[in-house]
Amino acid sequence: MMQDTWKKDVLQKKVQRFSKLAHEDWFLELSNLEIAFITEYMDLYENKPQEFLELLANRKKQRAIFLKLSKTVNTKANMKEQRESVEQFLQQVSLHRILTDFSVLPFAADYIVEKNVANYVIAHKEDEELIPFTEDAFYDGELHISLYDQSFVISVQSLIYFLFVNEIHHRLDEKRIVDCKCEHPEATFAKSYVKAALEEDLTGFFVLKNSNFMTSMLFAMATYVKTIRYVTDAFLLPELEAELDFIDELQNDVPFLMVKKEEVLSVCYDNYLSKKVEKFEQKEMQQAKKFAELQQKLDKQKEKFDEQLEKAQLLKKELTTKAAATVTSAEVEKKIGEQTNELKQQLKIVKEEAKEAKKIYQKERDTAERKLENALSENERLVGNVSSLQQQLTAEKRLKLQTEELTFAKWLQKGRDFIQHMTLDEEKDMKDFIAIAENMMQERSLARPKNDLSSNRVGHCRVDERGHFVNLGDGEWHEILHIPSNTYLSDAQFVEVTKDIEFVRPFIYFYTEGPQDHTITHFVAIEERHNQAFAKVNGKLTQIKYRDTAFIKHDQVISINASEELVSYYRNRSIQLDDWLPSIHVKRHEPLYVLMALANGYVVRGLNENQRYLELNQDLLAHSFIIVDEEEQVQYVEQSGLMYKGSSLYKYKQLASVSEMEDDIYVLKQNQEYVQLHDVPKTVQLELGDMVWVDEYNRFIECMEVEEQYIAADTIEKKLLDGGRKVTRKTKTQVMKDKELLIIGNIRISERYKKYFAEFGYEVEVVDGTGPFEKIRQACSKFNTILYSTAFTSHKNSGKMNLEVAKPYILCDSTAPKVMHFALDSVG
User: What is the DSSP letter of 134?
Assistant: First the structure.
């Protein structure tokens, strides 16, 4: 606790030091490329603000401007006027404000991942389309952004420099993003950034080498906040909920990541101090060199004076010895005296200059030595602090590995026991900790995505030529807004929306009418907590009331009445192209089947059977199913193509009988072709005589459940035998059926039930769990052993089973024969 408070104090002191630094400490060493980059955007903002906002939303144009400046800017040119203009522009905001803006910008902006690069853009995002802000978003040199029900106010200076930092990330991320088993970009970036943040040496990933202080500082801040953004996105991505190993590893790293911000700032400040020390040393060397030059000049003047004096003395001696000289002795002495005085005056001036230079040098040297001593002392203290933090972090890591896992519930229980006996000092530490926790929760709430909002609601869809609509249980139909371009919905499908009817996510559950629908007040998605069912109702997390016999699981969609009681739950099922077709047509998109992959494109076939060549910059497999928009950009890909082939829209499927199973599987098709069957999933176990659907390329689509009222397999085989080819069926030894069993479940696979349980001596009758209850009740009266599948029984029949069937029955939550057999054996 004391250590956490001390860390917070160190961070606050450092931020205060950064804020007190003069602007020239930040801007003095800006490169010519940075000056040209800021000037380009600054001129556009001041003269054409709307074009400036459009450029914020266009990543390709941003990249083109940067590459152009990188090639054209002279790195050694004197850009005095531009530099002064940029410094005046940047000095309009405080340094503390720029750092604050950088701490929220990665959450206020959106990013698009392309080839291991996260391209950030600043714009409205509607249906995956980026719409630039309008000029009314500017007010007093600041951009007001509304995102995820949150408001952000960002200075223009911070926006422009954030774009420059993004260019640096673009160049570096292509090389330093590590591979991740999870195929989602959020997971890849979260793993790469967190891995780098937990390294001992942060230089190179978080802190740039050989860069000026401003670029290094803001790059480090942006990189750290982007790390938090990627981790948050990874936690909130529904597709990653099944990646338990990845999520657990990420959760274990989060506590260590949260204390890395101080270390990043420390490294930046250390670099700043090191450069200051280098400057002092360079200035001292220059002063020493200047003093040595002056001393050398003084020595030369002295030598010259001695030579002149020696010449004068020789001349005087010669004149005194030569009586016949034409010049009198007095005149010679006068001339010698004048020359001597002139030389003495020159020597005096040189000495005074040397003395003055020595004083200036000594004064500057003393000042530099004091600053150097203070800087080295401060640096040594900070290095000691960082070393202490690293040692503590290492000790905490080792302690965590040695001790058992401490869950949040255990931690709270220990806290309750501890606070009963706190001292006054410990109470103060507890208050500080609570303040830190409140700040962290407040920061987290500012960046909450739409699917975390407690005000979200659930309803079922209707799709027609006018658009997508949702019924929230009140009987009213509301148009769904901001549906992503690559998301398609089906009639009766449940979706989650915000209070403003903005799309959040779809569910795999579908609405069906029921006799109790008039009592429904809300549709909700279940949140399972401590084996209890909760849901968001009117903005609050409310416990749902239901009977013990009801089968409810996490994220299941149900309906409730005004008393938060279960009214009905709904089935989930797989989606075929028939379901999505109205939604695809509303968006003016087109479903296509990939027939062939060529060097620069693909041969595709539409639903109208017309074939054409399509040039796409995307890797696709032959026989895959895709959906493209009006600009022929791929919005959805299914590599197996089964969504299309399993629908009523596919006209080329044929029924076939499994005829041979050795190393390969061969089938006999209805048109009497004897062919090899391809692409059978590993999860499908076929037997001789099974009936399967195949496509035009003899690829497996699905098994066909042969029912009594349908054409029998033997009849098909007889027709196929007429073609002259023999079909071998697998036979089994018949077992005496001395036990009777009633199965309430999926009537469509009744033959599979009978065939499977016959091997264990059961005479099986199957009744439809979703059919009339009277038929179920009559069947129950004839059997003593009843196997009841809750996975394929209507809610209405489930309730009547508890009230009207007095005989004991065995519950099973699956329709698979092997699982049901296990449930039967488990009760003897």
Answer: P
Sign (positive/negative) of CA torsion 768, 774, 777, 778? negative
φ and ψ at residue 686, rounded to 5 degrees:
-95, 155
Q: What is the DSSP letter of 592?
A: E
Do the beta carbons of residue 119 and residue 59 sit within 8 Å?
Answer: yes
| Res 326 pLDDT > 70 | no
Number of H helices, E strands in the chain: 23, 32
Residue 647, SS3 per DSSP: coil
DSSP labels for 217-232?
A: HHHHHHHHHHHHHHHH
Distances 491 to 474, 579, 662 between C-alpha atoms, Å = 18, 7, 44
Q: State the amino acid at position 74 in one-letter form.
A: N
SS (H, E, C) 343-397: HHHHHHHHHHHHHHHHHHHHHHHHHHHHHHHHHHHHHHHHHHHHHHHHHHHHHHH
Residue 70 burial class via C-beta count within 10 angstroms: exposed 0-12, middle 13-18, buried 19 and up: middle
213-236 vs 95-102: helix crossing angle, rounded to 10: 30
Q: Is 811 helix (H, G, I), strand (E, B) or coil?
A: strand
How far is CA 175 from each of CA 62, 233, 530, 555, rounded to the nearest angstrom? 21, 22, 44, 39
Going from the C-alpha of 445 to that of each of 232, 310, 331, 433, the distances in angstroms are: 12, 90, 100, 18
Task: Please give the Cα distance from 797 to 774 (Å, whole number).
Answer: 10
pTM above 0.90, yes or no: no
Structure tokens at 22: 């003069």
- Flag whether pLDDT at 715 surpasses 60: no
Provide the angle, in degrees to the nearest 10, between the axes of the packed helices 156-176 and 213-236.
70
- Residue 559: the pLDDT is 94
Q: Which two tokens stand for residue 612?
A: 């054409």
CA 564 to chain centre: 35
Question: How far is Cα 35 from Cα 827, in angstroms, rounded to an integer?
Answer: 79
Cβ 460 vs Cβ 492: under 8 Å: yes
* Residue 86 CA from chain centroid, whole number: 34
Find the range with the poorest average confidence among 481-485, 646-650, 774-778, 820-824: 820-824
> Is the pLDDT confidence value at 540 over 60?
yes
N-terminal to C-terminal alpha carbon distance within the chain: 57
Which residues are within 8 A (CB) of 305 and not within 5 positions of it... i.e. 6 or more apart? 343, 344, 346, 347
Q: Which of 21, 30, 22, 14 lies closest to 214 in space, CA to CA?
A: 30
Relative to beta strand 467-471, strand 540-543 is unpaired
Contact 789, 743 (CB under 8 A): yes
Parallel, antiparallel, or unpaired for β 786-789 and 739-745? Answer: parallel
What is the rounded distance in angstroms from the CA atom of residue 524 to the CA atom of residue 534?
9
503 sits in which H/E element: strand 503-510
